[in-house]
Amino acid sequence: MPDTLPENSVGLVTAQTMHFDVPLALACGRSFDNYDITYETYGELNSDHSNAILICHALSSDHHAAGYHSMEDRKPGWWETCIGPGKVIDTNHFFVVCMNNLGGCKGSTGPASTNPETNKPYGPDFPIVTVKDWVESQARFTDKLEIKTWLAIIGGSLGGMQVLQWNIDFPERIKHAAVIAAAPKLTAQNIGFNEVARQAIMHDVDFHDGRYYEHDTVPRRGLMLARMLGHITYLSDDAMREKFGRELRQGKISYGFDVDFQVESYLRYQGESFVDRFDANTYLLMTKALDYFDPAADFDDDLSKALSHAQANFLVISFSSDWRFAPERSREIVKALQNNNHDVSYAEVVVPHGHDAFLMPINDYLDVFGAWMGHLVKEVSS
Amino acid sequence: MPDTLPENSVGLVTAQTMHFDVPLALACGRSFDNYDITYETYGELNSDHSNAILICHALSSDHHAAGYHSMEDRKPGWWETCIGPGKVIDTNHFFVVCMNNLGGCKGSTGPASTNPETNKPYGPDFPIVTVKDWVESQARFTDKLEIKTWLAIIGGSLGGMQVLQWNIDFPERIKHAAVIAAAPKLTAQNIGFNEVARQAIMHDVDFHDGRYYEHDTVPRRGLMLARMLGHITYLSDDAMREKFGRELRQGKISYGFDVDFQVESYLRYQGESFVDRFDANTYLLMTKALDYFDPAADFDDDLSKALSHAQANFLVISFSSDWRFAPERSREIVKALQNNNHDVSYAEVVVPHGHDAFLMPINDYLDVFGAWMGHLVKEVSS
């Protein structure tokens, strides 16, 4: 590994893209005849293909979960904290796979891709995709990798929802499942925040009904607002107090509408930088996938019934200060599994960081997650 | 009273406007040479002017606190729940006054008023006004009414902040003070939400740097988003769950970006209807007044010191599910008063309704508030 990249990183990685030409029927009733899935892998697949771990990504992330794309790359993958040699998801032992979900904006077929029917970008004609659709596409991808059973499927937030759906749709293909900072469905408040974000994007005059690619523009303002709002909900009140308090940017108030407080500056920066790396139509799709996710709905609103065929050994982790997906929501998952006399480890990590904690290097979190993963290392090594 | 209006309402009311021509110096360093204050009064001022109660309004309300403007008026004033004959703030006993704050949009001088220097609407040239400025203007108004001492000053949310400021700046002019669902200053999270709301308004292409009056337009989209976001924070997660749950508007999901869930429909309606009754520049000003409020800052960040000269008898009320101004924030006020060996009654009302509870007919709340007000009735009657 080049010596300017950290020793415990998977180092330089390159995304790959796999093409699929067997039609994929979607929950909305439409289908894709062809589609691409972009993904990355870290570590080596062993001879009997028993050490493969699938990582499912959240709202605004992608397949680039670990490592660097170039020597000049300043930021590693989004879960560099957890994935790498010697880390919790140890690439010395596991073959780790992360895919960009359908509808994404980092290589997999998404709203910016060319619609074969019109030879223009899909834009608003891209079908609404659901967590179930993603899991179906992930299962087909799994076949192509010649992986019969995932040693583990792991995800945080919207990623955790995909882990749950895998256990409902393909229970025989997962040995272990880790559901982190997730919920079995969104609350009205969650949906409300998503709706404000969507309205911000869709009301931007540069949105052009989602056909902004053809107008050579981007709904910057709307996407920025969506991200600013998202960020507030990813942090806890306490975390924001600790991080920013009422600290002033220039030492005194301006009596104007420029930035006064550090927190304003932070949110504007987060919003503006997001626009350069994310597509607004993808953001819309991801929020709808979140809103629609409610696997118990098909089982008389009984999550235990929905998970009754799950076979995996579960780890559920929540964070005490996460008000987006509060610990109560994780406990609903634990309860549903226990109702099935299912093996489940649950940890509520007491931290002030809010929802974002699942991405952070927090000792208590990594300890409990690492201990659970340690059993998987033994399983693979034995 | 005409028999189609409720018996326990103050009935038909008419707003009045008072002109001021003594310059008012503002915290920002600028001043008004002339300004108007629009207000309403309910009940009769007694002969020694000892039964006057000032109501301070919150972010998006105004001087119309009770009664109806016409027989066709479908909605009464914003605090009809509490103000009226036989109600908690009993107009059979008290002379109740509510003013539209400077910078407002319902009659008092505000951003839509004509700037005498340009003969155009102030727009963005309207000075930033603070809670302290409001209290100063309210004190001058008090003089004109020939009221030496308010029997009580009462306010919820941003209104409660004005009550605190009165006790700092004019402690000798208040006998009783009720601070409901308020805080001694905003948290970083509060400021963050306000900043998203402001950015939504200011990024609306119809905002025209605040000079939209001259462009014969209104930043509808931005103000709508601000209000939608505000509404989520006025309700608790539980209240939204109870009110909307995941109920679908059309019974099934649409797989599109139209309204799916009832909560989306509610928020869109709240946002859209707000635009027709509120001015975006006023909204910006009110959020800045909230952000800037921090009376302890001038007293070594010690709220006890700031309130050390307060003489009033205090009632502080918070609501258990209010996460915008949580009970902890009210307790900071109680603590500061107690540190001064000050007489204070505190009640945390256990309700699921969130911040909006202060406007609602909740028995436990009205009971505690009413008991405290009962002492004032006795004081006036004796």
Structure description:
Two copies of one chain form a homodimer. The first copy, chain A, has 382 residues and is α/β, with parallel strands linked by helices. Chain A has ten helices and 14 strands. In chain A, the strands form four sheets. In chain A, strands 1-4-8-5-11-12-13-14 form an eight-stranded mixed β-sheet, with helices on both faces. In chain A, helix 2 (158-169) links the parallel strand 11 and strand 12. In chain A, helix 1 (131-144) packs across helix 2 and helix 3 runs antiparallel to helix 4. Chain A is globular and about 65 Å long.
- What does the average pLDDT of chain A come to? 96
**Cα Rg of chain A:** 21 Å
The major pleated sheet of chain A works out as: 8 strands, mixed
The number of helices of chain A is: 10
> What is the spatial order of strands in the main beta sheet of chain A?
1-4-8-5-11-12-13-14
Measured by DSSP, the beta-strand proportion of chain A falls in 15-25%
Which chain pair shows the most residues in contact? A-B, 56 and 56 residues
Give the topology string of chain A: H per helix, E per strand.
Answer: EEEEEEEEEEHEHEHHHHHHEHEH
